[in-house]
Design goal:
about 450 residues, alpha/beta, 9-stranded mixed beta sheet, 8-stranded parallel beta barrel, binds ligand LLP
Length: about 450
Amino acid sequence: MNLENVAAPRPDNSWSGIWSQQVEVLPQGEYAVAKIPVSDLAARFDTPLYILDIADARARARRWKKALDNVFADLAGGDVYYAGKAFLSKAFARWMWEDGLYIDATSAGELQIALAGGVPGERCALHGNNKSRAEITAALENNLAHIVVDSIAELELVNELAAAQKKIAPIYLRLTSGVHAGGHEFIATAHEDQKFGISIPSGASHLAIKRALELPYIRLQGLHSHIGSQILQLDGFRAAARILLAERAWAMAQGAEISEIDFGGGYGVRYTELDSIPPTPEEFTCALAAEVGAHIAETGLPAPRVSIEPGRSIIAPAVCTLYTVGTVKEVELADGIRRYISVDGGMSDNIRPALYAADYTAALVSRTSLAPLERARVVGKHCESGDIVVHDVALPADIKAGDLLAVPVTGAYGRAMASNYNMIPRPGVVGVRDGKAEMLIRRETVADLLALDLG
Ligand code: LLP
């Protein structure tokens, strides 16, 4: 029986710890976040509940900013764009901005949340492979730092809409280098079969760059590349950086003044104690700076200002999801018993296990247990057998209805990809800091669902 996946309580203070910095285990065995016992949070806000450790997320954001500032100080500096797709709320966007970051928005909705949170338009950028006219217009009206243009057709559209506003649109071109990374490996291919960006290997990027230089309402300010997500190694970033920098050199030889380069997001995190330790922000940014430095020395070109777009690595480890245990069942397998522990949420608040076979861990957080550890599977309450919260985890054998379980590292793409499957209202997000809790996004109710249905 595999009992490897055990969530050690608050194991360390490091960047790659499974629990956020303000998580502690109280003397009676209950967990607290930012000095608030989880049973208090459950009593006040009900479960399931996303608990966001505000100081932890902000420290992560500031660490990225500092790392980037340090390594690019001798070049042309840099900016961190927080990838709002990972998680966004008005307050969170504002905190990221207060901590010196920009906001990368991928839709009108993300942009409006950031603006409503008080982030100036000049501190936001717009992404997306199929932006609407309304989204591009909103980006221009709000004077966004830049629009990341994803295709030649979109280049024409941005030019047209900028002309209508008598504005010059600052743009980046999103280019694909053939490098894909994610998890433990990266692959480099000449032909890419995916929807994002404009291909460098096929030569399409040259056409886009030339067209951008012709269009009167376009200012080609930067080139962009994003190679994947949950990347745990440096090689893919290095390879893509070299390709993007070479493309910049080509563009500059055509007369383009490309003063900025964006290496995208994708910096991986640990989800369980079994995952390998990812590079730190210092290591990631150092690798990028080494490529930029070498390229500048070789070509004599002016250094570009460099931006990056981390999402997951800022918000994922800062959040845990709190669930209440319901039904517990023992299922007999060929090699022993597996205990199925049902909780009051599931694939509607975290689709990642079902969608990507993502592994998580879980811990009993409302009390101590002296019972032996047993192999368990934490499942949700949805009408689907793939509704798994944690595939395989060792939990105390006496877990029973009413206990609280927490699943760490759920901040990225958890609430952001939550659904109302089975007409389950989406959980709220509570921010905790210094013994105080504030609701950032309120829990949905069945009344919200009824209000959407016009009968
Ligand atoms: N920049 C661009 C252009 C992106 O497409 C993404 C993520 C990011 C930045 C942020 O990447 P991060 O640092 O968060 O890895 N739903 C998937 C992840 C999709 C990522 C999409 N793009 C998941 O739950 O694993």
